[in-house]
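FORM 12-B: Structure-to-Sequence Request
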């Protein structure tokens, strides 16, 4: 299993590449699978993100910090980050999971990202995995706020435009690629009066719409 592309995406080079290969092996493929690494990674992600939020929002109480963390480390959020790193392309799956679209299943992709981070922890300790995790979460951490946490990109964009009494965006599927069990959707989000036209891609129409809305929200002045 080639791992160079994944290591470049992570910005991290493994001393023991067998850890990364195990992290990219689903239980449907082999007995030497990634579930124990996922267990470690789950704790690592929660710890690193909690620390980052604690520092970013020094005045927020515990309940609000917990809500922000839950938003950042939810299964859909982790799956989207895994997709951005293209972990699915390198994931070893059993034949049944392959045929049923396992590479696009949010539960599998979020678990894989956690397993990869668990592998980094074992390979080089907490400081290494803290750096890698913060780099992966750089954009979500920079954009999250107590006001927007828990709201998806389409909701935030709609509320932004409604608050300014502006027309709502239009979404349209412009392309569908790949086989039925492994499709990629391309969706365009258009806000005509602001001359904004953004494209998002994802393994479902909804995920592609969210990606397009996220870009449009930033261009429309959201923060």
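FORM 12-B RESPONSE
SEQUENCE OUT:
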């Amino acid at each position: 299993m080639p791992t160079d592309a994944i290591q470049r995406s992570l910005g991290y080079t493994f001393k023991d590449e067998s850890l990364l290969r195990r992290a990219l092996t689903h239980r449907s493929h082999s007995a030497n699978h990634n579930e124990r690494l996922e267990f470690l990674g789950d704790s690592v992600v929660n710890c690193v993100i909690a620390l980052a939020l604690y520092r970013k929002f020094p005045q927020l109480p515990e309940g609000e910090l917990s809500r922000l963390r839950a938003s950042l480390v939810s299964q859909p959020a982790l799956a989207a980050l895994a997709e951005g790193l293209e972990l699915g392309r390198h994931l070893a799956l059993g034949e049944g999971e392959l045929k049923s679209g396992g590479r696009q299943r949010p539960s599998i992709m979020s678990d894989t990202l956690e397993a990869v981070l668990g592998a980094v922890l074992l390979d080089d300790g907490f400081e290494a995995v803290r750096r890698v995790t913060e780099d992966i979460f750089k954009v979500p951490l920079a954009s999250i706020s107590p006001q927007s946490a828990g709201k998806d990109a389409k909701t935030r964009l709609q509320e932004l435009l409604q608050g300014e009494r502006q027309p709502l965006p239009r979404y349209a599927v412009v392309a569908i690629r790949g086989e039925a069990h492994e499709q990629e959707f391309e969706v365009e989000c258009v806000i005509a009066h602001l001359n904004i036209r953004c494209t998002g891609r994802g393994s479902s129409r909804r995920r592609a719409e969210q990606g397009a809305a996220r870009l449009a929200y930033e261009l429309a002045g959201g923060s």
